[in-house]
Amino acid sequence: MTESRQAVTSTTDAMDREEHDLVVVGGGPAGLAAAQAAYDEGVEDIVILERDFELGGILQQCIHNGFGIHYFDEELTGPEYAQEFIESVAERGVDIRLETMVLEVTHDRTVYAVNDEDGMTELDAEKVILAMGCRERTRDALDIPGSRPAGVYTAGTAQRFINMEGKLPGEKAVILGSGDIGLIMARRMHLEGADVEAVIEIMPYTGGLTRNVVQCLEDFDIPLRKQQTITEINGTDRVESVTVQEVGDDFEPIPGTEYEIECDTVLLSVGLIPENELSVDAGVDLHPVTGGPIVDETRETNVEDIYACGNVLHVHDLVDWVTEESMIAGRSAARSLQNRVETRDEPIIVEKTDKLSYVVPDRISTVDPDREELPLYMRVHAPMEEVFVTLSSGGEQLARDFHRRAEPGEMITFNVDSETLAALPEPRLELDVVPREQA
Question: Is the preceding peptide bond at 408 cis, omega within 30 degrees of 0?
């Protein structure tokens, strides 16, 4: 266990300077789980920096149930799930600093943060875990033509208005995009008395979990219109209608297919972006598909001693998976602090075929005698029926896992046991998705 160190005041300027074993940037579910795991692994000098006025991140506005089924074996609401970890880190005496904005993380693990009470603080960390989460794409990212009236919101903003502020953003809504937040907000708007005219999805398949399509749309007779998109937002002071068109295989609007839907509200559920401005400033390399850092199995980035986890790494479907992955980062950082990590002579490179959009981690860099199996996270490019996810090395198939259906909106986890890793014919793994009849 490393010795806890106290804050010291810099003699060169008025800024306070502190030294810590571990600084966690972000107090959402990822940061909380990482801090808990690191503490339980023997590191007590931990600081969580959170810019909001409370811990829990996006979970605080997710008042619906469905959280914790995998991790706690029971259904919880978002705030209930968050509270379990808020109490857990508080019981462990982790240093929690709310309403604290992190301005910069440098490649040598210096964290600059500011808040009303302490002013600017420089925190020199042995290890840093990035857990900043993600943000929603806005209308500006989509280049939707039309006027700029009131009534256009991201789905998450509308969720906060209703669930935390008690404000209904509109009475007649159209939702663009079928991500999970959009699906959940279709149901929420309906339950609060608004008319949800349609959910419009440009792809030929939905972007959210199948259970959310069923429970949020089908159960409430809310129409889902695939391979269509909003091509214009109409209105002056307030949204009055939207123009919708069908799209072709190239996702371009098909002339002559346009029609209007009257509405006073447009909710956008068109994707999440990992919030990695701090990561880039620190010199962290980002993945071209996920938008998050490229990491090894310990969740360490290309910058030594800087780790990433949760939605800042890649967008997850379930908070349970965020917790699982973030605990990997927390344990790994702690074990590295205690010099309990054995680095491989040559890392195992994790590759994929073009049927998969990405795999996390990108490489396997360490040998862990306590690790029984290693989870690999991935998504398919397009929906597929009855497939095997296969694991190969050197042309030899090592393992496979059957799925009745694989969807881009549902992350796949493939667990590789330690014996398989130890007996690879070459330091390379390849993941593929193979139809059942070809496997």
Answer: no
Report the pLDDT averaged over residues 117-124. Answer: 96
Residues 348 and 425 grouped into a single domain? yes
Q: 207: which 2 tokens? A: 């972007």
3-state DSSP helix/strand/coil % of the chain, to nearest 5:
25, 40, 40
Residue 119 pLDDT > 60, yes or no? yes
Tell me the pLDDT tens digit for each residue of 254-264: 999 999 999 99
User: What is the C-alpha separation between 279 and 309, in angstroms, rounded?
Assistant: 12
Contact partners, residue 290, CB within 8 Å, separation at least 6: 274, 313, 314, 315, 358, 360
| Cross-sheet strand order for the sheet of 172-176 | 152-154, 265-268, 172-176, 195-201, 224-226
Q: Nearest-CA neighbor of 134 among 28, 268, 272, 32?
A: 272
**CATH number of the domain within which 207 lies:** 3.50.50.60
| Whether the Cβ atoms of residue 90 and residue 136 lie closer than 8 Å to each other | no
Average pLDDT of the residues in 24-47? 98
Q: State pLDDT tens for residues 207-255.
A: 888 999 999 999 999 999 999 999 999 999 999 999 999 999 999 999 9
Domain of residue 130, residue span: 1-135+271-340
